Amino acid sequence: MSRLLINESPIMIIPSFAVKLDLNEAVVLQQIHFHRVVDLKSAEWLGDPDWNKFLRPETLFGSKFESYLNQQEGKKRMSEDDFDLDE
What we know:
The chain is mainly alpha-helical. The protein is built from 4 helices and no strands. 44% of the residues lie in helices and 0% in strands.
């Protein structure tokens, strides 16, 4: 596992969701969501020195977790290099 991430996967269960589903299914679903966010943001931020410092649990699993989870795969942050400013 990368040194930028925690060594253990976090487990967060919404109690009412866990009751509606079998607890094991809820745990698996939460873990899939956590891994998806880690994969998406690592692909986007790991090679960028300005953004790789945000690959930490506080950022990935904080208030923007749901927006990261719903992000389209392959979406990348735009930078000045993406535009031809000389034209």
